[in-house]
Amino acid sequence: MAAGGHALRAVGDVVFLGAYGRLSFPATIAAFVEALLQAWAEVRAGLVVPLLRAAVVLCTAMSVIVLAEKLFLGAVSLVMKLRRRRPWRVYRCDPIARPDEEAAAYPMVLVQIPMYNEKEVYQLSIGAACRLTWPVDRLIVQVLDDSTDAVIKELVKGECERWAAEGINVKYETRKDRAGYKAGNLKEGMRHAYVRGCEFVAMFDADFQPAPDFLVKTVPFLVHNPSLALVQTRWKFVNANDCLLTRMQEMSMDYHFKVEQEAGSSLCNFFGYNGTAGVWRTQAIVESGGWEDRTTAEDMDLALRAGLLGWEFVYVGSIKVKSELPSTLKAYRSQQHRWSCGPALLFKKMFWEILAAKKVSVWKKLYMIYDFFIARRIIGTFFTFFFFSVLIPLNILLPEVQIPVWELIYIPTAIILLNSVGTPRSIHLIILWVLFENVMALHRFKAILIGFFEADRANEWIVTQKLGNLQKLKSIASLTGNYHFKDSSLVSESPKTDQSQDTIESFGCNIMIAQMKVQKIASETQPMYLDVRVVYRRSDLAGRVDRAHAATASASVVASTAPAATNPSRAVGRARRSLRGCAVRESPGASEHGPPPPPAPVAALAVTNPVMGNGGFSGRSGLHHG
């Protein structure tokens, strides 16, 4: 073959992994293959390579835009921090009234908690809202229950009635259907007559647990500054250390709050409402048209409409509200679909409305359109997907297309480092985070296209799965291989015996008991049984405030062995080592010489089990008899 033939042979070697050059074919097949290779060479030179070079130019422009946006926001956040420009230095936030003044000096506040089949966490959010430090007669806790499970509805209703019996003004509200999902639920909640007297509305998702002083710290901003419509606080993740998935999410969310929200609040008093852990002025909600269910980003929708009317927002990062990150990939993917699809559809619907707004400056319009939507949510996702998942792999196959080193290495490295500034403790996970974000970029890119073109899943709403206390119960159950969790229940795989119990209810029980069989801990032939009792006991956390109480989670593990078994102290030590993540201490009476008499030889452990440790409950521990 001539030079051209050698070139075709080289292409064939690449395509067929070297096999083409080593195999002989019949004349007709060889001619057909040569024709295909010739056609591919022409298409490659005339179409594929030029398109790929254009893609390199496009990705170069997108990378510069993304880097410039992150440098700009990072610089703003850094300058604000160096200048000590805190929200309380810009906006007045003096205490509303002195402790000795009457409660009438406090404004009426409505606390909304929308939920849907939240059996794992409903007690956490309702309890935290009812323990807020605020005059009882100036606070209404509204539980908006969209649950379809009758058992869960009864549990939520019972929890509301329990708090109502203690003097808290709790309203349990349901509706006939789930029209509009969360937005429809909130809209329906605002229609009740008692809401008209509430000046401010605080909102929490079912897995959020505000500290008792949340309203005391946030409401004064709205009381003393009539131009403010929203006070947004930061999320604190109680399960950030549970797994690698939650660590990756923490890095992204910390950057969002510490940089994006902080910069938006400082630059033009505008940012996207996060849908929870914020306090709204009721007047601003009404003037903006209330909640809209036209997209899955109802929180951003309301914030945009309020911002276009001239209302100001303030982000207070020093106030943190406990919440839960999705701990399964399925839950995280559904959440990211909603968070990517909703803003894309909202941008399409509100683009001209933003341009035509008369009550905001040109600078604020530019920030909304370019930075808030295009650079951050559209170009950022497009660049990550095309550059890392499309362009670089194709460049390996087509080496004649060159990607500049500064675009291939320097810009991505700078973007990655800027993203990691929010979570310095996870800097060693940055490579894994890059891989994780590249995988999720395809999912987000698809969601953006679905939202922009209003495809079938544009308004799909899947409630993010929450584990709450179930995750902690699983850690206890990990002591044995004879049980596994299924559908929030602990199901026995072994035949039922006197020492085992079929199920453990993970939702709403005052007392939850799981008796788990652990094989071959005390000896090689005789099993040892762990009797784990997780008990919620009420305790007064607020001192003189009678209504403030919480659940103290305590667990006791009683390890029983047969008289001929191994030294009980060794069994105690092995059981202690098995209880990972729990602080274990021997109960009074247990020692290296064996358990106290009677009954028969028993080695007792008292376990400080953080079943509710991240839920704002006290951590008292002790041996529970019963």
Structural write-up:
One of its GO terms (molecular function) is mannan synthase activity. One of its GO terms (biological process) is cell wall organization. With 626 residues, the protein is of the alpha/beta class. It has helices spanning 3-15, 19-22, 27-82, 87-90, 122-130, 150-164, 181-190, 214-224, 244-268, 282-287, 298-308, 329-356, 362-397, 405-419, 430-452, 470-477, 568-578; strands at residues 109-115, 139-145, 170-173, 200-203, 228-237, 278-281, 312-323, 483-486, 489-492, 511-518, 528-540, 549-560, 583-586, 602-608. The chain has three domains: 3-65, no CATH class; 89-381, Spore Coat Polysaccharide Biosynthesis Protein SpsA, Chain A, CATH 3.90.550; 470-615, no CATH class. Helix content is 46%, strand content 16%. It is elongated and about 95 Å long. The N and C termini lie far apart (91 Å). 42% of the residues are buried.
How does the SSE layout of this entry go?
Blueprint: H1 3-15, H2 19-22, H3 27-82, H4 87-90, E1 109-115, H5 122-130, E2 139-145, H6 150-164, E3 170-173, H7 181-190, E4 200-203, H8 214-224, E5 228-237, H9 244-268, E6 278-281, H10 282-287, H11 298-308, E7 312-323, H12 329-356, H13 362-397, H14 405-419, H15 430-452, H16 470-477, E8 483-486, E9 489-492, E10 511-518, E11 528-540, E12 549-560, H17 568-578, E13 583-586, E14 602-608
Parallel strand pairs: 1-2, 1-4, 2-3, 5-7
Antiparallel strand pairs: 4-6, 5-6, 8-9, 10-11, 11-12, 12-14, 13-14
Helix pairs in contact: 1-3, 3-9, 3-13, 3-14, 5-6, 11-12, 12-13, 12-15, 13-15
